[in-house]
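Question thread 4412

I'm putting together a teaching handout and wanted feedback from people who do this every day. The idea is simple: show students a protein as raw sequence, then show them the structure tokens that encode its fold, then repeat with a second protein so they can compare. Below is the first pair exactly as I plan to print it.
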Amino acid sequence: VWIAAESLLASRGDHSSGDEVLGASYLMLGRTLGAAAVIVLGYAVAIAPRGPLRFAALALCGVFLLALLLLGGRMPLLAAAAGMSVPLLVQLRVRWRAGGARRNRAWLPLLVLAAGAVGGVVWFGGEELPRTLERFTLLLEGDLGRSGSSRVEYLRAAWDYWLAAPVAGNGLGSWPILFLSEDSRHYPHNLFVEAAVECGAIG
């Protein structure tokens, strides 16, 4: 909750300040908040009793999602959405099988989350799109942006490095040496690509 509150306060009105919150990057915060959203949603739909406790859990999940929208991490938001779909779909199936009144309430958690996210975006985002949605629109407009362009460059380089040693790879930790010509902390933003370059088909 504290991380979400700090992220929301840092992002309010200034989309550039979300890069560093509590000394961590927006991606690390997004991963943390995404995992928290999945856990809290699972609790809300599967364990929490009906009433104020369930509503509070859903509201907290909405706060986590709002922070994800404002921080700017596209993949943490997508990963959280994918993770959140599991408890929602399981609970939807359980309620659908129960039939009757339970079937009619099956969509309530989704409606609460959607209303909270839309309200939060309007309140926190002002006239601009939330940072994460703004970064998604770059992809739709064909402009990969700095992040997307560097990822394409990484993939092209990784393909060449993999072709040089497709079976056994170039060795653990070789990516930054190959790409930057120095031994530093760097990776191609894709663990499968990094494993292919460093460990080859065997790895």
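The second pair follows. I'd like the answer to focus on this one:
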Amino acid sequence: VLSSANTALELVPRATAKLLRRFEHSKVFFEALPTREIVQLLVAEEADVAISSAPLDHPVLEVREIGRWTLLCAAPKGHELVGKKFDLGKALRQRLITYSPEAPQSRVIDGWLEDLGIARQVAVEVRSGYAACAMAAAGAGVAFVDELSALAHRSEDLELIKIPNAPTFAIYSVTNVNRPLSQLGQTFLESVKHELQTLIAAH
């Protein structure tokens, strides 16, 4: 089983544990990898399935949407954004914890900044939503994070704020069309879908 960084934090481990409770003599190999390496291993038939938050494109890969995630605003405990009606403009004017330009969060944040005519103030650039949560919890700035990373962080020093009309992003299962999933693999995918629904409903 391969996974993106954010789906590796809680979603895939929970689904794997559920699978192993049902198939207690089974063994699962699990690795969180960058998108490029996920594609390489699946194409080479060295892995059975991937759970990815990024769309993967290759002629031999079958990519199916299995759920969606959205963005939350993450701020230090007691921040001025907390406990009030969410003000996107005010949040964007804070010192921001940002991502590399190719991250899906970056495209959304850039669009918001452009629409509102706000100049970006970067405090820290990180590579993952989990790292963004850690930075926000420590008081380094305000972040816009995927809810899977935010829910996995669960720090008492972090406030998670829902963003009205925030965009949603797909989570995908990815397999090789030449390597049909076993019964174990199919059961794992069902577990992933169920655990995703449970996680999203929990906040």
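Top answer:
Good format. For the second protein you could add a caption like this: The two ends are 27 Å apart (CA to CA). The longest helix spans residues 183-201.
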